[in-house]
Amino acid sequence: MSTAVRQPTAARTDRKPATMGQALRRALRDALADDPAVHVLGEDVGTLGGVFRVTDGLAAEFGADRCADTPLAEAGILGTAVGMAMYGLRPVVEMQFDAFAYPGFEQLVSHVSRMRNRTRGRLPMPMTVRIPYGGGIGGVEHHSDSSEAYYLATPGLHVVTPATVADSYGLLRAAIASDDPVVFLEPKRLYWSKADWDPEEPDAVPGIGRAVVRRRGSSATLITYGPSVPVCLEAAEAAREDGAEGWDLEVVDLRTLSPFDEETVAASVRRTGRAVVVHESPGFAGPGGEIAARITERCFHHLEAPVLRVAGFDIPYPPPMLERHHLPGVDRVLDAVARLQWESGFTSGGRGGAEGRGGGAL
Amino acid sequence: MTVLEQPGTYAPAPPPSWRPRTEAAPLLPEAEPYRVLGTRTAEREGGEQTGPDAGLLRRLYAAVVQGRRFNEQATALTRQGRLAVYPSSRGQEACQVAAALALRAEDWLFPSYRDTLAAVARGLDPVEVLSLLRGDWHHGYDSPGTRVAPLCTPLATQLPHAVGLAHAARLKGDQVAALALVGDGGTSEGDFHEALNFAAVWQAPAVFLVQNNGFAISVPLAKQTAAPSLAHKAVGYGVPGRLVDGNDAVAVHEVLTEALDRARSGGGPTLVEAVTYRLEAHTNADDATRYRADGEVEAWRAHDPVTLLERELRDRGLLDEETVREAEEAAERQAAELRERMHQDPQPDPMELFAHVYAEPTPQLREQAAQLRAELAAEHEAAAAARPAGNPAAGEETR
């Protein structure tokens, strides 16, 4: 499978660019149309169309039973979705915000993630739990958490997070079609991001469990996902333009955090010899630690420098007035890249990382 | 403009959009637990046969006798190290058996860990039902095939499952009801509240049976709730509450049958509180003498579900010695078979631990499975090397 994904370069003139929110909505619409077992449920998903309008129009088109406003109780929503899945339905649950998903945690950890295992495959949980996550929209407390580490610590769940318009459609369709429960993390500040994308002919994208290289480079690899993908792409452009350093950075978009695509990540790091993991969630015991450990285990002899992490601080998510200091931005990413021991006498001397290493970086 | 400056006469009125959502009175439970056994003697003396159906009485009797024996046997198996733990339903057999017999084949049962007997009374293989309590990693029986959800350990978390399943069945137009079992302690959990609320709002065909056995491990009901009764909790959700003598198998069967019929025909959920008593400790690992007096237990022994049923049958001339012997023999046969099968050592396959985490194992799980497989092979090899050459069967225990 190719790991490169076509990135639209310029919008064609015959249609308006689509937003991530629109692509997600279209994915739900097409899933509801294709499979009568698919049921959308959550808070305000019906008449209102969801607080981010991702379910806009679905109740009108498919009826209040297929796109249902539930009582305001997240454990109840997930718990009833478990029962619906037991009866053969394919529930797609919307949690209104990252931090409001926590009341449903016991259902997710004790039942959603384990029902297949406990019943030796007789009661699979083909359920998708959509969660808008991450900061950068000026949300007050409880509206900006990056909660992915909690889900990654739970065997039995898949954790998926798109960063592009095409992936939003393709990965959400794949999540709904999956016979395993998928925690589908939607980077809320990218809801309004745009791309040239045809809803009538959505681009085919790699499935769940596959990372892609968003930008080819040779100096170092930035490994990231969700809301930090555009940040890393911007950082890579800036590094190029900067001139003084002239780093040619590769950017890997993980797309799926669990199962983790070690193959694509390791191949990239072996090529570049240096890696920085970038995410918004707190660094301590965050996804970056796991990823850095795996890279070290798989690529030790290819590494020119320790794997670094750029993450949110280990603090409760800060208020809107201060969040820009917390979120990993282009400068912080480039600072980390600068600390990748470029001066090391052990390297082959060039900016090209592993390039030219041939027979003996050491 | 302030209120005082508004024109016109001040006319006190209720808030504009308020209206009562539903009549509360019809939802209220009985003032005292509803009973059938021993209450209709006078009518029968008048020559009118108004008591419960004789066939049902005999079925319930055979099942509670068998249930009592099952509880005793399972507790004995914990002492013999054949069950890791057994939360006994001794004293609650009427609830367990009536719940199972009130269900139709197409209905679903959602049991908690204390409800093994309900699953067995529904006809499931006792050894399969005891899988988790035996210490296996899976729950044993075929849930979709038997329409019995896995025995649920985290309290009350199975109640929203029952509601979701019932709701899904109703959406599909199937005449299916879900019966969820929970204890008095479980009614304090948030999931109890959320399940009742969802069921009421969706009018889901779900019935909740609270077996109020007086204790949540050691904590008595007085420390659990200030509600007039647990059945009264129903009213707050707009759901009818029923209060029944949980040791009266006929009363429990009747109330559940009505509630399940109502659910299947679109009448919505019901909350039933069955007042019963846990005659044993919480589990074999618990010591009940630390938190309750012997006198209390003795009072409940005088209200034993098996005795209550037996007395009714004898009063009505429906029980001869042969029927008693038949019921006891059937119970003994089941217990003996359970004993024998549980004394065989199960051979769980460690490799199966990876098989059902996902539909397809992830690359990471495949790698971990390979590691375990290699470890198992090494163990096997070491064991083989320790055997005397040419005699692979002997010497196993000499290593």
UniProtKB/TrEMBL annotation, chain A:
Every Transketolase-like pyrimidine-binding domain range: 18-193
Enzyme class: oxidoreductase
EC number: 1.2.4.4
Domain of life, source organism: Bacteria
Pfam (any one): Transketolase_C
CDD domains, per the entry: TPP_PYR_E1-PDHc-beta_like
Protein name (Swiss-Prot/TrEMBL): 3-methyl-2-oxobutanoate dehydrogenase (2-methylpropanoyl-transferring)
TrEMBL record, chain B:
Region of interest called Disordered, as start-end residue ranges on this chain: 1-25, 320-352, 370-399
Domain Dehydrogenase E1 component: 65-350
Gene3D superfamilies xref list: 3.40.50.970
Listed cofactors: thiamine diphosphate
Low complexity: compositionally biased ranges: 383-399
Pfam annotation, one family: E1_dh
Ranges of biased composition (kind: Basic and acidic residues): 320-346
Biological process according to GO: branched-chain amino acid catabolic process
InterPro entries from the UniProt entry: Alpha-ketoacid_DH_E1_comp (IPR050771), DH_E1 (IPR001017), PdhA/BkdA (IPR017596), THDP-binding (IPR029061)
Molecular function via GO: magnesium ion binding; oxidoreductase activity, acting on the aldehyde or oxo group of donors, disulfide as acceptor
Alphabetical UniProt keywords: Oxidoreductase, Pyruvate, Thiamine pyrophosphate
Domain of life: Bacteria
Matching NCBIfam families: PDH_E1_alph_x (TIGR03181)
Protein name: Pyruvate dehydrogenase E1 component alpha subunit
Organism: Streptomyces qinglanensis
Lineage: Bacteria, Bacillati, Actinomycetota, Actinomycetes, Kitasatosporales
